[in-house]
Amino acid sequence: MKRLSFVLVLTMLISSCNLPQTVTATAVNSPTLTSTSVIKVVTPSLNQIPLIWFAPLPPLPVVEGRPYTGSDDYIKLFETDAPWQTAASRIQVLKLYGEWVGYASQVQLEFVIQNAQQRGFALAMEFGPLDAEDCGEGIEGFSGVSYAVDAAKRIKAAGGTLHFIAMDEPFYYGHFYDGPNACRWSAEKIAREINQFSKAMKAVFPDILIGDTEALAGQAGANQYKEWVKIFREVNGYDLAFLHIDVDWSRPNWAQEIITIEEYADVFDVPVGIIYTGNGFDSTDEEWLSAAGERVKKLEIEHHANPDHILFQSWNDKPDRTLPESKDFTFTNFINDYFEDKAELGYKREGEGANLALGKNTRVSNFIDGLTGSFAVDGDLGTLWNSGGGPTQWIEIDLGKEYNILKIELTISQYPAGKTTHRIFGGNASRQYVELAVFSGNTSDGQVLIFLPDKPSTAIQFIRVETVESPSWIAWREIEVFDAGN
């Protein structure tokens, strides 16, 4: 484990964090703000392992790809008596989105920065460091040096000291991304471009530390990031200050990949860590934070990992509420739960309304690429069971004993959309099955099928889902079976 001053790590997944080229609006839902020329700054303590970062999504304009505006009460976090004193005491770094730094009014920026520094938070900013050339325009990671310098100067003018830059996935989008305007640059060229970016940022804040955020997705796996850490040092003669891993949660072995990256980066004294998020399609704060909690347990309890740094961050629609810390399923309450008993994070597992399928044993007709039946009952809509074939395919869940079933929810993974037929069976402890429901009609990826009988289905231990018609390989993101109680 690294114990280096002003050095940190973790993982994140950010979209739409590039600075817009024209910004004219003002953030919404803000309390009355005042600023003062006298700022009491508490020196940040940055030697803690793990180092804790907080980066909720602030109010931002609705744009293509982001039809939401961020946490409704973001600005209230920075009121002096805001109800998150315990959670705030557990945080060392506040990370700002570069887009918001350019979007916020001067009064808002001063208000946030002054309160953050009075609380002893170090300030970080996330930004895409690369300049577009004959490629890269409009692609994440290519926000540009001049915009980053302007944003840093805004922070400085607001009385802030920027301790960290977390670069927004330059290697992933500069090298692996192969969509429109793709650059497909070599790792060496990207490292050289980052060196120029670093020099420009240090002209504003000479002591700033510049680290990287990268996506664990697609072809960019543990081996690729091991190579990236090495090449960066070879090209520039110094190391990344940290490496943030932005996880594609659907990767079946993401936890082990993070551990592999951390073990390798430790040789270079580059800290590595994790950002815990929910899913972009989660419809409530409870769903988003429960999914994040399941990921905490998978990495830190199931795989016994000890990240050098932890990031609590969102770039999704949820959570809407960061406050108060005393209320269940707010962002600050989640932070406290993480520290007080992380084993209790995640989805409800016992009692009326609990998801009885969560973590239970499964049998399947087939699976592909390690996407076993367990991923359909892991509480994570970002993962899935994939049979690797068309109909007929089936999955069976053993609830462990007989229960009374309130309802069953099945979240589809399907490409392309089209006509499907799914049959749901329930079996008792003796495996005597009855047909509970048939779903037949046009379906699409992410759609939820709900079996909700007029009265609970009794004495059910086994749930079997058979798909007999589909234009797609048969797969389920999640199958949830809810306890009706006694």
List the helices and strands and how they pair.
Layout: E1 51-55, H1 85-89, E2 93-97, H2 98-103, H3 106-118, E3 122-127, H4 145-157, E4 162-168, H5 170-176, H6 187-202, E5 209-216, H7 222-236, E6 243-247, H8 254-267, E7 272-276, H9 285-302, E8 309-313, H10 331-341, E9 361-364, E10 385-386, E11 393-413, E12 418-427, E13 433-443, E14 448-451, E15 457-469, E16 475-483
Parallel strand pairs: 1-2, 1-8, 2-3, 3-4, 4-5, 5-6, 6-7, 7-8
Antiparallel strand pairs: 9-11, 10-16, 11-14, 11-15, 11-16, 12-13, 12-15
Give an overview in words:
This protein has helices at residues 85-89, 98-103, 106-118, 145-157, 170-176, 187-202, 222-236, 254-267, 285-302, 331-341, and strands at 51-55, 93-97, 122-127, 162-168, 209-216, 243-247, 272-276, 309-313, 361-364, 385-386, 393-413, 418-427, 433-443, 448-451, 457-469, 475-483. The protein is of the alpha/beta class and 486 residues long. It has two domains: 51-344, Aldolase class I (TIM Barrel), CATH 3.20.20; 361-483, Jelly Rolls (Sandwich). α4 runs parallel beside α6, α5 packs antiparallel against α6 (187-202) and α6 packs across α7.
**Which structural class do you get from the secondary structure elements?**
alpha/beta
CATH superfamily of the largest domain: Aldolase class I
| Topology-level CATH name of the largest domain | TIM Barrel
Rounded average pLDDT: 91
Q: Please give the domain count.
A: 2
Care to count the β-strands? 16
Report the principal-axis shape.
globular
> How much helicity do the residues have?
10-25%
CATH classification, class level of the largest domain: Alpha Beta
Please report the number of helical segments.
Answer: 10
Rg from alpha-carbon coordinates: 24 Å
Major sheet characteristics = 8 strands, parallel, barrel
Amino-to-carboxy terminus distance: 49 Å
Order of helices and strands: EHEHHEHEHHEHEHEHEHEEEEEEEE
* Low-pLDDT runs: 1-30
Could you give the order of strands across the largest sheet? 1-2-3-4-5-6-7-8
CATH-derived architecture of the largest domain: Alpha-Beta Barrel
Proportion of residues in β-strands: 15-25%
